């Protein structure tokens, strides 16, 4: 009877979590879309656009270790609720400034920093709580539904943002985000984050641990996990090189190719459709057997797409062909993002002990994003002084080379010993 109740509650969590993410992601992405276009049209500079991205990334990188400590030592539900309240107030503050004084880059950058901090608290804590919200058999389904909700929001928000941009004032975008944040808060307050949690009672000695000691314990735990260390190094360098896409894509389409905001929004929607379709696939299929191998192949595909973004800058194409080309490119990129992320996320959820999840995910985020601010500054400068097509091609070559080195067959065999056994058996069969 108790198990039936817990499974029923887990089902409720699956859908509440998904709807909450859908609502909050929709508001956040409409806001991000509008702010990005506003900055580009206000300044016409890739550097200013990159500065806003840095304001989103740098605070997350700095504060993530503290967030991990908090997530492992305090109520995860209260952390998430507090973060959602702070998000609502931050947007309300920017709305107040916009109505009374008008938007400025300083106000936008400040709000972006605050939202970055609140989203880090919410994101790391939610990642740490998945195994407490749903039963183990449905972790992949939970991760896929989470991604599907983000994809649904990504499909609608750029299209709606593109249609609304220029037709309504910036305060309207901010009001949409505030309303979305408030509804997400209500849903999150109904969830039981301890339903399947396996957190152990802390000893008196552990309760007295400082944040520094706690983080050291998290690092020591990670060193015993070969998969975690491999993924961190790959993410560190790949995220740096993907700065070429983060800064360059909007800059190329809006400033260089003069794509209409509505059409630009539709290409972003194609990216979300690709993510959605692949998320649906992962929600119904069995778990991937060799996640790091699958992710390696996906990142190689990312490298090819990164290079492909430069084609309309090299070859003269009609406006309609350029629009269709980028829609296809972004659809493929959305598919590959899910192929890279979902299998690894599921494996990490199952492999990491509940008591270490907050610190491990926080350290992972810090390391994965450590070079991104530098990448944003570098690429923001490079796009202002060099032809963007060559920046993309060189970044693509470096991305592919790094993954081939860091995820070479010998590394894959250490992370997935079964893969090496499978290859040996295959060679024996071929030799017969």
UniProtKB/TrEMBL annotation:
The main location is membrane
TM ranges: 12-40, 46-71, 78-99, 105-127, 148-168, 174-197, 218-245, 265-284, 296-317, 323-348, 360-382, 388-407
Q: Name one Pfam family in it.
A: MFS_1
Q: Does the keyword Transport apply?
A: yes
Give the superkingdom in one word: Bacteria
Under InterPro entries, the record lists: MFS, MFS_trans_sf
Q: Where in the cell is it found?
A: Cell membrane
Topology within the bilayer: Multi-pass membrane protein
Its keywords, alphabetically, are: Cell membrane, Membrane, Transmembrane, Transmembrane helix, Transport
Q: Does the keyword Transmembrane helix apply?
A: yes
Q: What is this protein called?
A: MFS family permease
Where does this protein come from, organism-wise? Cytobacillus eiseniae
């Amino acid at each position: 009877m108790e198990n039936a109740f817990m499974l029923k509650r887990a089902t409720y969590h699956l859908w509440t979590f998904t709807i909450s993410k859908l609502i909050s992601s929709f508001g956040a992405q409409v806001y991000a879309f509008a702010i990005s276009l506003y900055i580009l049209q206000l300044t016409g500079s890739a550097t200013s656009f990159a500065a806003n991205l840095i304001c989103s990334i740098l605070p997350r990188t700095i504060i993530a270790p503290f967030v991990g400590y908090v997530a492992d030592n305090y109520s995860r539900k209260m952390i998430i609720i507090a973060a959602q309240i702070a998000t609502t107030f931050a947007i309300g503050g920017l709305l107040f400034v916009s109505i009374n004084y008008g938007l400025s880059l300083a106000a936008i950058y400040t709000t972006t920093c605050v939202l970055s901090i609140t989203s880090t608290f919410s994101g790391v804590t939610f990642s740490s709580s998945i195994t407490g919200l749903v039963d183990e058999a449905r972790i992949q389904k939970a991760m896929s539904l989470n991604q599907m909700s983000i994809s649904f929001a990504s499909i609608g928000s750029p299209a709606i943002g593109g249609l609304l941009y220029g037709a309504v004032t910036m305060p309207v975008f901010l009001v949409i985000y505030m309303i979305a944040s408030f509804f997400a808060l209500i849903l999150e307050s109904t969830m039981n984050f301890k339903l399947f949690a396996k957190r152990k009672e802390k000893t008196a000695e552990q309760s007295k641990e400082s944040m520094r000691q706690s983080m050291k314990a998290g690092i020591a735990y990670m060193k015993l996990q070969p998969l975690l260390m491999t993924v961190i190094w790959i993410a560190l360098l790949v995220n740096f090189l993907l700065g070429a896409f983060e800064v360059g894509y909007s800059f190329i389409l809006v400033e260089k190719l003069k794509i209409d905001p509505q059409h630009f929004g539709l290409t972003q929607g194609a990216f979300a459709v690709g993510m959605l379709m692949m998320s649906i696939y992962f929600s119904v299929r069995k778990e991937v057997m060799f996640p790091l191998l699958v992710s390696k192949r996906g990142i190689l595909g990312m490298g090819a797409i990164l290079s492909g973004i430069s084609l309309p800058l090299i070859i003269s194409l009609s406006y309609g062909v350029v629009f269709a080309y980028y829609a296809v490119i972004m659809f493929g990129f959305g598919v590959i993002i899910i192929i890279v992320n979902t299998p690894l996320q599921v494996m990490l959820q199952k492999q990491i002990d509940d008591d270490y999840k907050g610190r491990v995910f926080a350290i992972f985020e810090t390391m994965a994003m450590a070079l991104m601010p530098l990448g944003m500054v570098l690429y923001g400068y490079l796009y202002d002084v060099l032809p963007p097509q060559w920046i993309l091609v060189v970044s693509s070559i470096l991305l592919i080379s790094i993954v081939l080195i860091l995820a070479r067959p010998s590394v894959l065999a250490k992370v997935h010993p079964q893969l090496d056994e499978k290859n040996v058996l295959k060679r024996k069969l071929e030799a017969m």
